[in-house]
Write a structure and sequence with these properties.
Elements lengths: L1 H13 L3 E7 L3 H14 L4 E8 L12 E3 L4 H13 L8 E6 L11 H11 L3 E6 L21 E4 L6 E5 H6 L13 H11 L3 E5 L4
Parallel strand pairs: 1-2, 1-4, 2-3, 5-8
Antiparallel strand pairs: 4-7, 5-7, 6-8
Amino acid sequence: MWERDLVKNLLNWNTKKVAVFLVNYNMPERADQLFNYLKENETWPYDMYLIDNGSDIKNPSKNTTVFIPKNVQTTRGWLNGLQASDKKLYTYFAYMFLITSAEFTKNSGKPISSMVQKLLEDKNAVGVHASLTKDSTTCWDHLKNRGSFQHFRQTFMIDNICSMYRADWFNSIGRFDKNLIYAWGIDVETGYIARQQKRTLWVDESIQ
């Protein structure tokens, strides 16, 4: 009886769990910084998949959980992480994607807890992205923080600098296109599918 209750409690705990995917290629110090930020600040249940994408100049991060012998570029790095997450005995509520070129500002608090809130409250929402600082070197001006007092702001597409997708929806669309190996276009395609299905995408203004 106690074993059945234990399994039930574990399944309930993991019902809303998030899988975080961070691909590293020769940037272990950046990967470790993001790893440590979440470890020190986040309280929402999550599993970190830190994927070493064939680093050949520097040693892999000490926190690496998935090793790829030879670099397969960004998209396939994330897909390798997703394949590793499929081996768990439980399913994830959401998937979060990070890049090593980014870092959280000091007032970003708990990014997973914040972004997952939108997916829990709004069943039609399928994706959330952290806002980018106003001085970010990006052409995606619609993702830059607008200094408003909104927590969430609806938008037409999100990047994968710091994104979160509802896992069941993301799996239903076939995840990322493995042929778009440099990650160019996977964000546009995912946003297009969401709009086509009349689902919504959001920017979290409370995180930068």
